[in-house]
Amino acid sequence: xxxxxHLVFLMISFFTFTLLRSPLxxxxxxSFHFSSLSLRNLTLLGDSYLRNGIIGLTRESGVPSSSSxxxxxxxxxxxxxxxxxxxxxxxxxxxxxxxxxxxxxxSFGDGLSFFLSPDDQTLGSPGGYLxxxxxxxxxxxxxxxxxxxxxxxxxxxxxNDNHIGLDIDSLTSIETADCxxxxxDLKSESLITAWIDYWNDGKNLKVFLSDxxxxxxxxxxxxxxDLSGYFQExxxxxxxxxxxxxxxxxxxxxxxxxxxxxxxxxxRIKNPYNVTDNTVSKNPSIGVPEDxxxxxxxxxxxxxxxxxxxxxxxxxxxxxxxxxxxxxxGIKTDMNIQAELLTGPKQFSYKELKxxxxxxxxxxxxxxxxxxxxxxxxxxxxxxxxxxKRSKHSxxxxxxxxxxxxxxxxxxxKNLVPLQGWCVEKGELLLVYEFMPYxxxxxxxxxxxxHWSFLQWSHxxxxxxxxxxxxxxxxxxxxxxxxxxDIKASNVMLDANFKARxxxxxxxxxxxxxxxxxxxxxxxxLAVGLSCANPDSEKRPSMxxxxxxxxxxxxxxxxxxxxxxxxxxxxxxxxxEDIVSSSDGEEEEDxxxxxxxxxxxxxxxxxxx
Length: 609
Known about the structure:
Layout: H1 3-21, E1 25-34, E2 42-46, E3 49-51, E4 54-56, E5 65-73, E6 77-78, E7 80-81, E8 86-87, E9 89-100, E10 111-117, E11 144-149, E12 163-168, E13 175-178, E14 192-199, E15 204-210, E16 221-224, E17 234-246, E18 248-265, H2 292-340, E19 346-347, H3 350-356, E20 365-369, E21 372-379, E22 384-391, H4 395-408, E23 419-425, E24 428-434, H5 441-447, H6 457-477, E25 492-494, E26 500-502, H7 519-532, H8 543-550, H9 576-580, H10 586-594, H11 602-608
Parallel strand pairs: 19-23
Antiparallel strand pairs: 1-18, 2-5, 3-4, 4-18, 5-17, 6-17, 7-8, 9-14, 9-18, 10-11, 10-17, 11-12, 12-13, 14-15, 15-16, 20-21, 21-22, 22-24, 23-24, 25-26
Helix pairs in contact: 6-8
């Protein structure tokens, strides 16, 4: 057989064999493992935060307080397929601790939960609601959860203050199990590991618990239940916790998850390869005796091939290497960005964004930033409206683009404008954000009069609270601290519910009031604003404290009756009067050279006293 034909035959045979073995229905298995947690794949809601690879779900406070927090895996997981009517099974493992900041205190509660939810906004009220439901609407949120309860709440028929339970759309558990029966105290501050296994074929859920790190032989909770009726096609996974008047804290240290068993139909292959006898050549080779002339001729040919062959091969390698290097240089930037965004925003094509913005027409411009214009875009692929930021063609613009992309892609907060995608093509630097229908605060307050009546006091107060929440996240809770120094109302966006969304990592304060407002909230908001504007930076409250004050979770800061004075410290033997006074001759020049970083106008100094 001709060697070339033999190789082709083997390749076709292997390919056909693979096709014949492929089932018409494939199983989609999904798994992830986090030995250390990061914000690249997780979204934090409420009071949750990340510190040293560990998620804290509730606020750390030495005095009893109320708190609620949630962490959610960013990507929804398939749990049901309508085409094949198949439901997923799953298994998850995680380690957690329940601590008490004030160990001398006996204030505990309320616990934490692992949950599945059809949306990524599951955040309940503080108190005995485990961060799953709101106190005013106990049946609003849909969820499947395993609770780890540390407080006896008779309202939800709890058996004791140290149990686990299966909850479906309600905090009244379908079935519970006492952790004391296996010698585990959820409040012991020990590292506890939980395994949750659901087998859809057997319609059974098991929960194992251990403080040794090894999975026990017998489950603590064993429930025969069919969850297929509660599964949506895609669901989000996460953890939630809450406290009420306690110093209890909840931490998640590691997490792994696997789902399997859901089947997806494969597209049918219309023209599969068929192996026949025609694939193999059957012509036998015929031997012909050679004379000496032919032998010498063949030797010369063989020698030439032996010399030129390697040279040609090396030449091909050089050409191939050069072409590959050129391509590598061309896509290096994209690859670097993609490495930062493996599970983050989508990469759009330039053609799609150009079409979505009508060729970046001037009529689609809805705003201007420091590094380019923002266009309103209609994405045909998803049928949604988005905002496309187009950076200017400059080195500075590209640097800002890459910096903003790498930072924002890792940030997750309900009050941050979500980054949906990006594009680097044809010399263009493009970012795609969620579209905020009411624009920025400055437009609603000062330009767009038709929306003025909608911005009632309740909206205004919620905006201030939301801004304090996101600034707390940026300053203290996110893995990479973000401090932005471009504070203005035009960068605070409003969604359809008049919730504040922070654009370009910045913050603003709403100063105008409506005729209808809560006087106590106005007083509180003004007091907070004055405290934040204190000339002495040491006396300004942190954003976490501001957020707690606005949510009635901390005492207000007392505002001094007399306006604080500006103070300056210097190692130089100069008084304030020496610095601001103007004298003639070289004395003035010498003083200005000694303290070039200090320049104070007399009028400003007087106005500040």
